[in-house]
Amino acid sequence: MPMTDELMACFKERFGSEGDIRVYFAPGRVNLIGEHTDYNGGHVFPCALSMGNYGVARKRNDKTVRWYNMTYPDDGVITADITNLAPEDNGLWYDYQLGVLWAFMQKGYEIPCGYDMVMVSDMPAGAGLSASASIEELAAVMARDLFSLDVTMSDCALIGQYSENNFNGMNCGIMDQFASAMGKKDNAIFLDTETLDYEYVPLNLKHEKIVITNSGVKHTLAGSAYNERRRQSEAALRDLQAVTDIKTLGDLSENEFENFADAIKDPVNKKRAKHAVSENARTIKAVSALRNGEMAAFGKLMSESHVSLRDDYEVSCSEIDILVEEAWKIDGVIGSRITGGGFGGCTVSIVKNEAIDDFKDRIGRIYKEKTGLEAQFYIADAADGARRLL
Hints:
Elements: H1 3-15, E1 22-33, E2 43-59, E3 64-69, E4 78-81, H2 93-106, E5 115-121, H3 131-146, H4 153-166, H5 175-182, E6 187-192, E7 198-202, E8 208-214, H6 225-241, H7 254-260, H8 267-291, H9 295-311, H10 318-328, E9 333-339, E10 346-352, H11 356-371, E11 376-380, E12 387-388
Parallel strand pairs: 3-5
Antiparallel strand pairs: 1-2, 1-12, 2-5, 2-6, 3-4, 6-7, 8-10, 8-11, 9-10
Helix pairs in contact: 2-3, 2-4, 3-4, 3-5, 4-5, 6-8, 8-9, 10-11
């Protein structure tokens, strides 16, 4: 039975079959390059995935929302009063739903009534594929459609970011929500996170596939080292602004950064800023290489990105490093790096078609030998963004 049929059956069993019942989907994302640049005014290059969160919903006649998640059945039905929402985060899936409704109202949009909803995910949680943004954009596209809100999909991305920053306490940039809301099949999004100017870039992978490898190490970002990295980057920016007229770290070229770097007082903060500046430059170069069909150059920049994330931004971990370093040894692997916020999660690799089976076999075996953990592999298909299905 297709997932949407299962969802609809579950919805009718729990909430009844009458009325206007609608079906929605919002994807997760993988970022090919441009990590921790989105809150530093730089460029990113993600694509939406065919995996994500599905939801079935129907409006109610009161101010109550009722949610049930088939992925977490032990949670039961979660009930909330939309007239009494306040920022909080329990680290649970429904906090991201609540946050989006709260954010819409904070921005002056009317949520006239509640709704009943059943959702389910076909993507791994805590894997760095942005399950949280997928839930946020599912909630946003659902509210947009159910309540006929006059918002664009890029507005939905900004609402999702605002809710995660201010309701959930996670000081993320815009990339994850933008990729989930604005994805396009067979394309990645080249996004300037400072201006929100973007272009769709065809992936045109004729002889290669994007392979995501899940380390099985789950990361916890909110209130953690992720927010600390942002604070360190902002401190570095303040030091640089004392000696040069810039708004973000993304305004600096690598040469300009070298000229002004000694203004950054703290050596750790200097490393953080070095990553932000160099990663932005790598992302711009990588997109140019992809457009020119220069896959070897693209892969080299991916691998350099991992080194910078490991050494300068320090968001990798031993398990992820094993996956990446073993991937680099395999003929047919064009590039490999950590993807997502870090501290666990997934790697993303560009692998030649004929090498994929060897990649899975060797990486899986060596990773199990070295860590005792089972790696999971997904072939990533670039997909469309959040939308109503039925």
